Amino acid sequence: MKNHFLGSSLAVLCAGMIMSATEADACTGISLTAKDGSHVLARTCEWGGSDLESRYVIVPRNSANTSLTPSGQNGLEYVTRYGYVGISVTQDSFVTEGMNETGLSAGLFFFPGYGQYEEYDSSLNSSTIVDVELTGWILASFSTIDELKDAIGSIHIVATSPQAGTAHWRIAEPSGRQVVLEITGGKPHFYENRLGVLTNSPGFEWQMTNLNNYVNLFPGQTSPLKLTDSVTLSQFGAGAGFLGIPGDVTPPSRFVRAAFYKATAPQYATSEETVMETFQILNNFDIPIGIEHKAGEAPSVLPSATQWTTSADQSSLRFYYRTCWNSTIRCIDLKTIDFGKVSRQAHPLDAVRSQPVEMLRIK
After folding, report:
1. CA distance 29 to 301
2. Which residues pair with 40 in a beta bridge?
3. Is the domain 3-343 a CATH 3.60.60.10 member?
4. What is the four-CA torsion angle of 314, 315, 317, 323, rounded to 10 degrees?
5. Element (H, E) at 94
6. Whole-angstrom distance, CA of residue 130 vs CA of residue 16
7. Tens-digit pLDDT profile for the chain (363 aa)?
8. Which of 153, 249, 258, 362 is a good FRET partner for 25, with 20 to 30 A between their CA atoms?
């Protein structure tokens, strides 16, 4: 792959590859646990600038990979230890979200202005990988977070190009353990994510501290407040306990909203029911096309800035997704795939970009 291609094609990537600082990315991640103890990890992927041309990819075990560097396809060489399923953006190797056959899940989220990768050194190409290929390396190589933590120091993670933004990552085990990986000062840092929510900038620790600003919020209704003998205040409608929750699409506001929606969601019996609940919650984070642009400048080729949403059932090993072109939920069952025999492949998320409509016959 040639360097000039890297500079031109990465301008449209969600979560860590965006070349233009004037465009916004807004990925939101949540997780829920079913009563049967199974864990479900879900997220949105937004990019309102252009079509990400996303595809679902199937990667077998024992397949050879050569990572990109800013100077070409001449980086870290490795063989996949585990097969995995994921969704790529722009290029098939740029996996943004996925799950491997052990149930380990990993995803990349845009992190502009706060991440600082180490500078690219071509003499270290044999152990260098660009940020947009890190998710694939994680899914291909590890079954636990501790394995990843032990190995991360052996590689060099660099920006795809000097103009590209930075990313951070969410990694989760089927056990429910979840971490956030952020690279600052050229060094990787892992944060235990016991809340199970992630958005974008600022850093994860700041986002957790910011939640304290909303300690006054609570689910349910408010009690009437008597100001005088003749004046009593009462709520206008249901849900007044959440009055003041931020409703804009900035990362801090989405983090707060996701945290409270997750915390107050009912717990369902099974992972399948829980998967459906994650899609319902993430409906609230779909971003209409146009919010990120000046009036009249929004692209007309996208029905939504939220180009796709995924939910991974880490216990049943099922990977679900829907898109802005077709809200029908589709599922890839990893248990039905023989990762020792399947070929490496990639397919469009939508065979036809059209929302099915069921016509009801009235007699």
Report:
1. 25
2. 32, 313
3. yes
4. -50
5. strand 91-100
6. 10
7. 334 334 334 434 433 344 333 345 689 999 999 999 999 999 999 988 889 999 999 999 999 999 999 999 999 999 999 999 999 999 999 999 999 999 999 999 999 999 999 999 999 999 999 999 999 999 999 999 999 999 999 999 999 887 888 999 999 999 999 999 999 999 999 999 999 999 999 999 999 999 999 999 999 999 999 999 999 999 999 999 999 999 999 999 999 999 999 999 999 999 999 999 999 999 999 998 877 777 877 777 889 999 999 999 999 999 999 999 999 999 999 999 999 999 999 999 999 999 999 999 999
8. 153
Q: Please provide residue 264's backbone torsions phi and psi, each rounded to the nearest 5 degrees.
A: -105, 0
Determine contact, residues 308/21, Cβ cutoff 8 Å. Answer: no
Distance from chain centroid for Cα 162:
23
Dist CA 177 CA 156 (whole Å): 25
Helix (H) or strand (E) holding 39: strand 39-46
Show the tokens assigned to 176: 């429910």
